[in-house]
Design a protein that fits this description.
The protein is 44% helix and 18% strand. By secondary structure, the protein is α/β, with parallel strands linked by helices.
Length: 370
């Protein structure tokens, strides 16, 4: 038990040590030690079209599952949030479990691609990229994992191409916009005209406008960032995680004006997925056509996609094997946090592994096990 004097001295000594580490780490920061690496797992590009790419992650771990796992991330962020650091990489976790992992990278659109619609992204990009994955693997189906806006893209794709999707997983899917907080209220205002905004920017909606709304929803979190930074400046590991996340948060891309207009008008304003009135270039997209096993995941502290919005995914499909789970964390922490490593990652692996074809090695021969 420390006396008051001993406790005070220990506090001062600890502070001196931490401040020395802060000074040393500050020099490392200036020298670029914590520069954004944009992912840690090696990959090869197996398909590309304009700025769109399909990545296949490389691993020495023998494959245990025949059905490939394909990630579909949001168009407004960079995909590598799922591969942030060595110990916070969901991609690497799945590779180590024996999955064949692919990533849809939408890329940074050019002005010409600013005319891209939902139909363009689904049929001209996503469908062709997945077709290439099937050619590479020799499989007939994939496991499709959509995150945030990528969940909407994944559900639209599956509704049109159900025969290709064996299992569908959606994380924080923004489906029910009947009450998704301040952004829904703002977009439904008569004074908010997405077409006028798109005409103003002509081709691409800048990332500052998109993410300004998200930061507005998390004003308190943004105000506390400098204090958080100072508290962890002495800790190398925490500092590495901080810069990796902060680099990703600021590494945003513009979004095609035509696509963004569709998104706001059909989803935010008209709640088209819940009302089953979504059309893609005039073609009806019936979400009841989604009949494969489906896992939907909400985040309890998500201030971007509310739990109510995420639960909407379970109400509109025709799947008879559907599961909704609520996990601890916010919109990003739910997949990158320490709790995610202990709970979400293993749960997703277990759910998908029970519904995917396995590969076993027996007497030198590769055998498919169903």
């Amino acid at each position: 038990m420390y006396s008051d004097y001993e406790a005070d001295m220990k506090y001062i000594q600890d502070g001196i040590v931490q401040n020395a580490k802060r000074f040393r780490n500050s020099l490392d920061i200036l020298e670029g030690k914590y520069a954004n690496r944009r992912g840690v797992t090696p990959y090869e590009v197996v398909y590309s079209r304009n700025r769109f790419r399909v990545l296949r992650y490389v691993s020495d771990v023998p494959k245990r599952f025949k059905t490939p796992m394909v990630f579909c991330y949001a168009l407004i962020n960079k995909y590598y949030v799922l591969d942030m650091t060595e110990d916070k990489s969901f991609v690497r976790f799945l590779l180590d479990k024996g999955w064949d992992v692919y990533m849809i990278d939408w890329g940074k659109p050019s002005k010409i691609e600013g005319r891209n619609t939902f139909s363009d992204y689904i049929e001209r990009y996503m469908a062709r990229g997945i077709k290439k994955i099937l050619e590479i693997t020799g499989e007939q189906q994939i496991n499709l994992f959509g995150y945030c806006l990528g969940s909407i893209m994944s559900m639209v794709y599956t509704a049109v191409h159900q025969d290709v999707v064996k299992n569908l997983i959606v994380l924080t899917p923004p489906v029910d916009f009947s009450d998704d907080g301040v952004l829904t209220k703002m977009s439904q205002s008569e004074h908010f005209d997405p077409r006028a905004i798109a005409d103003h920017f002509q081709h691409l909606i800048p990332p500052e406008m998109i993410h300004g709304g998200f930061k507005f929803k998390d004003a308190l979190g943004n105000l506390t960032t400098p204090m958080t930074y100072w508290k962890i400046l002495w800790n190398e590991k925490a500092l590495g995680d901080y810069f990796a996340m902060n680099g990703w948060v600021e590494d945003n891309v513009p979004i095609a004006a035509a696509f963004w207009t569709e998104l706001v008008e059909k989803m935010y304003k008209n709640n088209a997925m819940m009302n089953n009135t979504f059309r893609m270039s005039g073609v009806e997209v019936d979400f009841k056509n989604i009949t494969c096993p489906m896992l939907s995941i909400g985040a309890s502290k998500d201030n971007i996609v509310t739990p109510k919005s995420a639960k909407g995914a379970m109400e509109i499909t025709g799947s008879k094997d559907s599961t909704f789970v609520m996990k601890k964390g916010g919109h990003i922490g739910v997949i990158t946090g320490n709790v995610a490593k202990r709970e979400l990652w293993p749960d997703v692996h277990e759910w998908a592994s029970k519904r995917s074809d396995r590969v076993v090695i027996k007497k030198g021969a590769v055998t498919k096990v169903k």
